[in-house]
Design brief:
This protein is α/β, with parallel strands linked by helices. The chain has 23 helices and 14 strands.
Length: 619
């Protein structure tokens, strides 16, 4: 208690010390009263006044006061703004000022340092949080990154997948097994452990896997093959183990691995051997799929467009027992795909999906969807209420050849392009084994395309891949028709580089006829296998598949085919030179000639081949 009393007395002494010091100060004789100050201001004796608001004191400088002496001090009224003093100083032109308060500086100092301390604390908290997250990530580095859905929420059913009916039928067994496994187990049947979806890009492999999950309604794990592979050895294998651990806990379920070729490539392939991390990941995947432990109820579905690069151990029975080919759709498939993607689009009543399906052989499902979307965008841009066949045609051209550019002005270049494209189009019309012309145009496209002549290909031949020798020779002749027209009309000195791509196609096609299809005088045997990819571990530093002497003969046969077809193209152009000039004039005027109109013009001058007359035009 005595200590508290002593502390209180010391505090009172400190607080009272300024007042005591002021009262005992010898400067007390240097003070004025408030009334004296006003009198001296009225008499003109005051030159300057400074008010100290903290002390409530005015320091007065007199006119006759020496320079080094202290100013007079006047005690002001506390809480009063002293209006008499301010008014007197204003009327007598006395300089009146207020000394800055030390308290405002202290407040500013306090706020500044408090803000700095706050920023430091926030920074320390962020560093601590990041370090804790980093430690958590280090602990989870080997965890699987698979997206997991306890129920199938993909929003895709088999009804949403069209054009691949055979694949859907095979995969329907997987759905039935997941829903009613006793139907198979009762007779001793086992469902395949793994299903490999194989097909070109855009054919719907990933969409089909989502549809399986949507139909089965079981837990669904989805991951990309590239997500297994990391820079550090062993991480991918750890993720594989974690993925299958989660799958076993939720069996029966589906595990979907997209682009499995990223992790399932042949071991030891490529220059300098394989990647240790990728090989360990593949080994772990092989073990999990058919190792010492069973994975009852887990069905693995993988997708790839490169089955040739996969390791043979991955494709053996017991791992991926079944390979389902998801190929490019046929006519019926394309029609089904168009019907699916046309559900949410406003189509004009004149739009025929059957005609569109006939015009798009070789299109994948993704390309058909993109084509319809481009047509819808063009319709909105042109401010139409519904998609018409005009937008469909423009969308097909945009997808296949590129975006339309501004037409060329009348010039020598435009006429030269017209002769080049008419050369292609005339050969498409007159050659017996050629597919019919769809249209020819000289409207330029993006990518340096000055114009094009488009065919409607035979769907059965394209789908089956059974090309005849006569069809291939006519294809080579058509490809050389542009260069033949340039040379016949403008001469050797005026031929252009516009046929560069055509000539490259001719060289590749003629070489395949000689070396792979046996369609030459060398005989019916293959000279090349087509496996020339070094980074697959094949054909590196391998000897040639035929001798130098045979290589010379191959080159001679390729040159003979190209030369013979070029001579035939020039002969047809030369014999129908007047017709070529007429067609060029019409093309320069219209910029686009449809196939039916082109055939009518040609028929007025020369008989058409019987096969062309029997082929219906596709609008």
């Amino acid at each position: 208690m005595g200590a508290v009393t002593a502390l209180w007395m010391m505090l009172q002494t400190v607080l009272a010390s300024p007042a005591l010091a002021q009262n005992s100060s010898p400067a007390r004789n240097n003070t004025l009263t408030y009334t004296e100050l006003l009198e001296r201001i009225e008499s003109g004796q005051v030159s300057k006044i400074e008010i100290d608001p903290v002390r409530s004191v005015a320091e007065v400088y007199l006119e006759d006061q020496p320079r080094n002496t202290q100013p007079k001090e006047v005690t002001l009224f506390t809480g009063d703004r002293n209006p008499e003093l301010v008014e007197a100083a204003r009327q007598n032109n006395v300089d009146l000022g207020v000394r800055p308060s030390a308290s405002s500086g202290a407040i500013a100092w306090f706020v500044t340092h408090a803000l700095l301390a706050f920023l430091i604390i926030v920074g320390l908290l962020m560093i601590l949080r990041r370090s804790s997250n980093a430690s958590g990530q280090a602990m989870n580095f080997g965890k699987s990154k698979a997206r997991f859905q306890m129920e199938a929420k993909t929003g895709v059913m088999f009804d949403d997948v069209a054009g691949i009916e055979e694949a859907k039928e095979e995969l329907q067994e997987v759905v039935t097994f997941l829903k009613k496994p006793e139907k198979f187990t009762a007779i001793g049947a086992k469902i395949p452990k793994g299903v490999l979806l194989v097909g070109p890009p855009g054919t719907g492999k990933t969409l089909l896997a989502k549809a399986i999950a949507g139909e089965a309604g079981v837990p669904f794990f989805s991951i990309s093959g590239s997500e297994f592979v990391e820079m550090f050895v062993g991480v991918g294998a750890s993720r594989v183990r974690d993925l299958f651990k989660k799958a076993k806990e939720n069996a029966p379920c589906i595990v979907f691995i997209d682009e499995i070729d990223a992790v399932g490539r042949q071991r030891g392939a490529g220059i300098g051997g394989g990647n240790d991390e990728r090989e360990q990941t593949l080994n772990q995947l092989l073990t999990e799929m058919d190792g010492f432990e069973g994975n009852t109820g887990i069905i693995i579905i993988a997708a790839t467009n490169r089955p040739d690069v996969l390791d043979s151990a991955l494709l053996r029975p017991g791992r991926f027992d079944r390979q389902v080919m998801v190929d490019l759709p046929s006519y019926k498939g394309r029609l089904g795909i168009l019907q699916v993607h046309a559900r949410n689009k406003k189509l004009d009543q004149d739009v025929s999906l059957e005609a569109i399906a006939r015009r798009t052989p070789g299109f994948s499902g993704a390309e058909l969807a993109n084509m319809l979307n481009e047509a819808a965008i063009l319709t909105a841009r042109r401010r139409k209420d519904a998609v018409t066949m005009l937008e469909i045609d423009d969308a097909i051209d945009r997808v296949t050849t590129g975006m339309t550019l501004a037409p060329l002005m009348d010039s020598k270049k435009k006429r030269l392009i017209a002769y080049h494209e008419v050369g292609h189009a005339l050969l498409m019309t007159l050659l017996k084994n050629s597919d019919p012309l769809n249209k020819v145009t000289i409207i330029p496209r993006s990518g340096g395309v000055g114009g094009f002549a488009q065919q409607t290909f035979n769907e059965e031949m394209i789908d089956s891949g059974l090309y005849t020798r006569s069809w291939l020779l006519d294809r080579i002749t058509i490809a050389l028709g542009g260069r033949a027209a340039e040379q016949e009309v403008f001469g050797d000195a005026e031929i252009t580089v516009g046929a560069g791509n055509d000539i490259r196609v001719v060289a590749d096609m003629a070489r395949e006829m000689v070396t792979r299809y046996g369609m030459s005088d060398l005989g019916p045997f293959a000279l090349e296998s087509g496996n020339n990819e070094v980074f697959l571990g094949r054909d590196w530093m391998a000897r040639s598949e035929y001798s130098e002497e045979v290589a010379v003969k191959v080159d001679q046969q390729v040159r003979a085919i190209a030369t013979r077809c070029y001579a035939e193209a020039r002969r047809i152009i030369r014999e129908h030179r007047g017709l070529v000039d007429k067609l060029v004039d019409i093309l320069l005027e219209q910029e686009t000639i449809e196939g039916e109109q082109f055939r009518k013009i040609v028929a007025e001058h020369t008989p058409l081949p019987e096969r062309q007359l029997a082929t219906p035009a596709v609008s």
